[in-house]
């Protein structure tokens, strides 16, 4: 039985802090690779800039020391030699200018790299979204995973990378300072390091708490987004006013957002106190070191220049140690988010093309066979279809009838492999559907579903999407429109096939439900499909349009296998054979005449409907 877990894992339980730390950092190589793939040259450039920048603070400190010592020397002797001082100041200025330039270059590369990577990461995310099964899109957990991946994927991988580069830069600066300070007193360095460690602990702890809080909020966050959408999109605008839902929904939305703010404020307050505590510890460490430098200067053990250099170096070292530890905490936090991006990329579709596909038979000879086919939706306890057996020859037209929820649409979804059967087999000319390439299969099985798509794009796109290879072939598009009875609709539009439909964009035209349906049908007529499926194609059509359509449909599809779902028996009766589905099983099967003679469910439903429509004859 296909369980939900086959498609998605539920939210992983929160692992222990130690496992979490290492597991999270284990993502780093994969994301470095990802960022590298997005923009290798830019990355190298940024690395070069950051590393060069890293050496500057040490050089600046050393020059200040030389200047102070030189000033002291000049003061102790008669006459001043300005050349050496002038050169030192000039050198200091040169280095500072280089730093200004490098900083600007870094700002530029960071921004460009960010943009480049965001594009790349979203592209990968969308590619993955296209690849996944329909079944994925029917599980709430999937939307949580997608939502988190969308929020995490675009920014965080590149931020991890930048933080890694910064970390490398800061480590280099730190190593330079270390070489200055170790000569003075290595123990003081150790003191600085130890007094800064609590900050790392607080940083990592806070990152984790914030991350798990946001993760827990994903589903409610999606609910808030959904409510926002209900309040702001055309789809709902009429009912929101009609039923006066506005204030009620707004309050629901507000309470979710307020709750989020409250939860985050609590975390932030706790964090602020903790950071205050660790800040005290770290600063005490620095002041202890500073005091010792002063003592040694007063004792005459080091020069005034040394005092400037060491006190500056200790201050910078302390800042750097904290910076480095903070970067480590950041890398940890960003990695947590990146893991959500990878969680989405790791999802695997179950419905895939075989590695060695067989070409779809053209023309079909024996036709379609369903043998003992059963199917259950992911997560459902009962099967929706149960042991269906049916053989359909090429050129035959089949109508599917049954109560709402009997399984008609589900059966048709199996024919296009939106889902794979749970047991049994579906074959075309004896070849299982799973042996065909998915694209080849779907080109040969054309469908117009009840909930067909309405693209807010041009009419040409709305029809041409039926077969992208011919999207620019206006003759073919016009033919498809003609077959679907849509030419009248298009002729009434000011810009014909170029008219943008829907209400999303300017200069567009909105169609009625039936007019949209005609375009949906035209899309199906674009394909060279040998099997054509219409799932309630006439629900939104008026009686004349429906009559027209079926006259044409019969002519156009004489050599095709057709399936038709309809609740209108005047349409159903035109089919060669009628399948009556009941609770996912075939209850009756035969031509209209046979089923009427049988006097079973079909006959009962037909009479019921006929009696309510004057003029519908048996
Ligand atoms: N995506 C889905 N996930 C889980 N269950 C589903 C899904 N789609 C349909 N079902 C369930 O499967 C059953 C059959 O649905 P299906 O859409 O095939 O019925 P139908 O015969 O086409 O109905 P209608 O005449 O209302 O269109 C229903 O009980 C429905 O609740």
From TrEMBL:
Q: Please name the SUPFAM superfamilies in this protein's record.
A: ABC transporter transmembrane region (SSF90123), P-loop containing nucleoside triphosphate hydrolases (SSF52540)
Q: Name one GO cellular component term.
A: plasma membrane
> What keywords is this UniProt entry annotated with?
ATP-binding, Cell membrane, Membrane, Nucleotide-binding, Transmembrane, Transmembrane helix, Transport
The UniProt entry lists membrane topology as: Multi-pass membrane protein
In which compartments does the protein localize?
Cell membrane
All residue ranges annotated as the ABC transporter domain in the record: 368-608
Quote the Pfam families the UniProt record gives: ABC_tran
Keyword Repeat listed:
no
Could you tell me which InterPro entries the record lists for this protein?
AAA+_ATPase, ABC1_TM_dom, ABC1_TM_sf, ABC_transporter-like_ATP-bd, ABC_transporter-like_CS, P-loop_NTPase, Type_1_exporter
Name under which the protein is recorded: ABC transporter ATP-binding protein
Q: Which organism is it from?
A: Thermoleptolyngbya sichuanensis A183
